[in-house]
Amino acid sequence: MRVLLICSSARGHAIADALKRSPESPDIIAMCKERNPGVEDLAETLVVDDIMNFQSALNIAKKYKPNFAFIGPEDPIGGGLSDALSAAGIPCVAPTKSLGRLESSKGFTRNLLRKHGIDASPKFRVFSSDQGSEMYKFIDQELEGAFVVKYDALKGGKGVKVSGEHLKNIDEGVAYARECIAECGSVVIEEKLIGVEFSLLSFASGKTTVDMPAVQDHKRAFNGDTGPNTGGMGTISDAGHSLPFLTTQDLARASEINRLTAEALLKECNAEYKGILYGGFIAVKDGVRLIEYNARFGDPEALNILPLLESDFVTICQAILTGELSDELVRFAHKATVCKYITPEGYPQNNDQRDAVVRFPALPNNARLFYGNIRRDGDGVLHLGSSRTAGIVGVGSTIAEAETLAESLCQRVEGPVRHRSDIGTEALLNERSTTMQRLRSAVHS
Ligand SMILES: Nc1ncnc2c1ncn2[C@@H]1O[C@H](COP(=O)(O)OP(=O)(O)O)[C@@H](O)[C@H]1O
Ligand SMILES: [Mg+2]
Asked: For the segment 39-93, what is each residue's pLDDT rounded down to a tens digit?
């Protein structure tokens, strides 16, 4: 068994780890944009190259003849690497370019849900020509000034601007919307929702979806959800595979939206979506709405989810490809996880600590460490990059137990680094639950 893994970063490390834990213990041929030490230790071969160089990926595939490929990040999926590899006879656990529009075009996804009667979107409109006054009117009258403007193409998590945060008034919103249209041809303008965000990822075979444990990310750089947005400072999941601030109905609805969306894609594109279907949701006063879809694992979400996987990841990947995916093939441990990212002190504002030495403590059995933007020198010493360094995951019977473990390990990391000490703490969880109780009770009173 041989798998081609196109992915670096901590997410790539977590995927490689899950593949390697399979009883098949596949040979991993990795194509990474940098020499990730975690992937390097697990892979038989690691080729460092630009992962948007599809010809290079095809050459590697021809040379090593993998049974299948797994594509980690969104850019090669959005660019059509799955199509290219499939055409060369390598099936891919990653959607085609057309199906991948679920992530690469927020307008496509909003329209898909509307067309197929999936009532999960906020009020929205997609504009593809510069209708300044129409946009102004829509925001002012229909959205009552609480709005979000979304670049309608991949932009590395930097294409969304929210009123009251990044956009001071409607004029700024319209100006940004125009910029989006000029750059990528269209823009989504939608209602700003109030609630608590969470993610529900499903394995998808085109015929069925099987859910993973729900996860919550923490995007802001500093404690108390303050500071600029980041790639994600950490994530939590709970032993029951839901989250403390969600109702049973909320989770069931998110699951249903993922299933209905996979069905809608099959009808719309006449092709099966095979890969990871990542629903970004928000629990609001009267249920759940969809914020966006991603067509791949999240980083750090994968770092919580994959260590909990008790069943064989290689079998799941194969079942996605053959269409035989079923609930019975997917079993997750009933444990809670807390992942905290270690980052350089200056992240995300500056990279003054780049190349500084970082040392990690020894890990107990119920903890994991996944390397991100980090370099290992010839003497085996680890050095910081400029982005997120490594995710430390604590596993426990409760979120509190997992948090205590992750936190104590993070505190023992040596080097000019930091992390968010509040992720997974009771105080932050209580705050989320209180927010949801307040929103829900306002509806019922
Ligand atoms: N309709 C919305 N209402 C409120 N906040 C939103 C809405 N859409 C997006 N956001 C906020 O903006 C963030 C980024 O938007 P998202 O659609 O997830 O794009 P991306 O992850 O590609 O940047 C979300 O995590 C959420 O905090
Ligand atoms: Mg998002």
From this structure: 999 999 999 999 999 999 999 999 999 999 999 999 999 999 999 999 999 999 9
Tell me, using a 6 A CB cutoff, whether residue 177 lines ligand 1: no
Output the CA 25–ligand 2 centroid distance in Å.
Answer: 33
- CB of 103 closer than 6 angstroms to any ligand 1 atom: no
**348 and 307 inside one domain:** yes
CATH of the domain at 380: 3.30.470.20
What span, in angstroms and rounded, lies between the C-alpha atoms of 216 and 336?
A: 12
The response to whether residue 160 sits with its C-beta less than 6 Å from ligand 1 reads yes
Condensed to tens digits (0 to 9), the pLDDT of residues 294-313 reads 999 999 999 999 999 999 99
Looking at ligand 1, which residue's alpha carbon is closest to its atom 18? Answer: 292
Measured from the CB, is residue 196 less than 6 Å from ligand 1?
no
Residues 153 and 280 in one domain: no
CATH of the domain at 26: 3.40.50.20
Q: What is the pLDDT of residues 112-155, one digit of tens each?
A: 999 999 999 999 999 999 898 999 999 999 999 999 999 999 99
What integer pLDDT is reported at residue 445 of this predicted model?
Answer: 65
- Is residue 442 pLDDT above 90, yes or no? no
Work out how many domains the chain is built from and give that number. Answer: 3
What residue numbers bound the domain in which 306 lies?
Answer: 196-428
Q: Whose CA is nearest to atom 16 of ligand 1?
A: 292
Ligand 1 centroid to residue 159 C-alpha, Å: 9
Question: In the chain, what's the furthest Cα-to-Cα distance?
Answer: 66
Task: State which ligand 1 atom lies nearest to the alpha carbon of 159.
Answer: 23
Q: What is the DSSP string of 328-393?
A: GG--B-S-EEEEEEEEETTTTT--TTTT-EEB-PPPPTTEEEEE-SEEE-TTS-EEE-SS--EEEE
